[in-house]
Amino acid sequence: MNTFRIILFVTFVVLLSACSNKKKCKVSGEILNGEGKTLYFQKLDLDSTYSVDSVVLKANGKFNFSVPRLEYPSFFVLKMSENNFITLLADTTENIEVIADASSLPNSYTVQNSMGSSYVKTLNRKLDVTKEGIDSLVNLYNNTPEEETELRGKLREDMVDVINEQKNFVFDFIMTNPRSFASYYAVFQRFDDETLVLNAYDKRDFNMISAVATSLDLMYPESPRVKQLKNYVLGIRYENQQTALQERLVESAKEVKTIPEIAIENLKGDTVKLSSLKGKMVLLSFWASWDEKSMLENKRLINIYKKYKSKGFEVYAVSLDRSKILWESAVETNKYPWINVSDLQYTNSYPARLYNVKQLPANYLISKKGEIIGKDLFGRILDEKLDDLLN
């Protein structure tokens, strides 16, 4: 009888343990060559990252972390140091297994039993390859003499192609996995600290972001991340509505020769207002690093700028670039001496829409009184106009 009770008790404990395990999400595995080093397990919330657990690895490199059953798909990090980590996308009670080398977790890891984590790995690997390609092209561009305009133009086109290829990859991924939180992750991937892969102010990109928000809202309406994404989409829609309203006001204002205000950031992140130049003769210039005609015109404009700057002439140059990397590279490489600003919204640039720019390059000449007195003046024609006005 006692033996029966013991067997019954052991069976009860085993079943209780099994039920308990089903209420947890586990991350376990092996970190090679990590003996004596600390492995951190962290959770990524919307506004912060907090430590869940950590372990000092032994010779066998084994680790085992767990959290209570997840109500929504969540992002976690396995980290050896600030620059040596991997991102996991866990769901409910997954039992995720990771094997990696301590020297470089992101370049060595494999992940099993977690589709979301596999998707995140795919997205990161593709983006890493793209960023390497952009860096390589930027280096080639910077080392190409200015007089080799054809080659420099080709390199700029190649950069745009690489960026667009990454965007198309993200589009395909989202279309295939619209209800995966990995698509949420893809929406907020970045080329650098300031440049998202998907530009919410580009109509095609915005439609894709909206599709992710709508799809995830059907599955996880109470998820904080889904609510954040919905608010992000609604915010952009509101801005677009306000922009459309502003454009209508601008059309009305043209009748009374009012100059629409522009206030956007320069390369240092400082906001520069067009109105701050009142009292000077201003050339409001629209260009882009990817547009060969713009680059050629800017080269001619440098000499004109130097000729008339001391007489009260200024250039307020608005770039229609999407990538800060390309914009900054063009400005610094060519040493453009004037005011350089951009909202990095490509052809959806607010200032360009505000001034009804249809092609590049484009410009407006603004008098010292703040009135538009010329449009699309280039090279010798601009030089002669400024000579009449400033001499």
Briefly say what this structure is:
The chain contains 11 helices and 17 strands.
Structural features, described:
- By secondary structure, the chain is of the alpha+beta class.
- It folds into three domains: 21-113, Carboxypeptidase-like, regulatory domain (Immunoglobulin-like, Sandwich), CATH 2.60.40.1120; 119-245, no CATH class; 263-390, Glutaredoxin, CATH 3.40.30.
- Helix content is 46%, strand content 24%.
- It is built from eleven helices and 17 strands.
- The strands form five sheets. It has a five-stranded mixed beta sheet, with helices on one face. A four-stranded mixed beta sheet has the order 4-1-7-8.
- Strand 13, helix 8 and strand 14 form a beta-alpha-beta unit.
- The longest helix has 30 residues, at 224-253.
- It starts with a helix and ends with a helix.
- The model is unreliable at 8-20 (pLDDT under 50).
In CATH, the architecture of the largest domain is 3-Layer(aba) Sandwich
The H-level CATH homologous superfamily of the largest domain, spelled out, is: Glutaredoxin
Report the CATH C-level class of the largest domain.
Answer: Alpha Beta
Q: Given the structure, what is the number of helices?
A: 11
Low-confidence stretches: 8-20
Please indicate the count of domains.
Answer: 3
How does the major sheet shape up? 5 strands, mixed
The helix content is 40-55%
* N-to-C series of helices and strands: HEEEEEEEHEHHHEEHHEEEHEHEHEEH
In round numbers, the mean pLDDT is: 89
Separation, N- and C-terminal Cα atoms: 115 Å
Rg on CA atoms, Å? 28 Å
Query: How is the CATH topology of the largest domain named?
Result: Glutaredoxin
Going by helix content, strand content and strand pairing, the class is alpha+beta
**Largest beta sheet: strand ordering:** 15-14-13-16-17
- Structure summary, number of beta strands: 17
Query: What is the 3D form?
Result: elongated
